[in-house]
Amino acid sequence: MFITFEGIEGSGKSLQIARSAAYLKEKGIDCLGTREPGGTGFGIELRKILLGTNGYSIEPWCEVLLYLADRYQHLKEVIEPALARGVVVLSDRYQDATRAYQGAARGVSGAEIEKLSQVLGIREPDRTILLDLAAEEGLGRARTRNLLSGTAESEGRFEAEDLAFHTRVRGAYLELAALHPERISIVPASGTPDEVFSRIRGLLDQWL
Question: Model pTM?
Fold first, then answer.
């Protein structure tokens, strides 16, 4: 099974994926945690370009192409081989992130993104956990995290966007969840990490 975790900046995806992977392993389920961008060696280099505050701008369509390049490599090198071995794959961001960030928030045509994704054969995940959080709270969390970890320059490009940008991202995610309720499960992310994981654990127990 291929499960993705989505949400705005600061929604706690990385922590919850780590906890989910540990939980599944305790249950004897072989699983793999990965992320986009950066799930492959090639992706790590793209991550530096896409997330760093490097002093240059990237055109929205260039962002789309770079993210899809990362995704295609990730799919062929990591995700599909793991699924073929019967491994459960948990990914921190995937295709819905491009729809929300580059499509809704950057204004790139959603129809064109879908066409290109179809050409590349980008598969949909089996299930998606959407960690939902108010944009103000998520952005505040993310900026604080980057300052404390010293990653504001190396990984802070999206955190530097204004509140309106992140509000559009959140709105797009909620629209996607409404369109695909059979795949996307919304988990409120404003509680404590334990409270959030309790909800996620319930979903994992249903699915696996």
Answer: 0.93
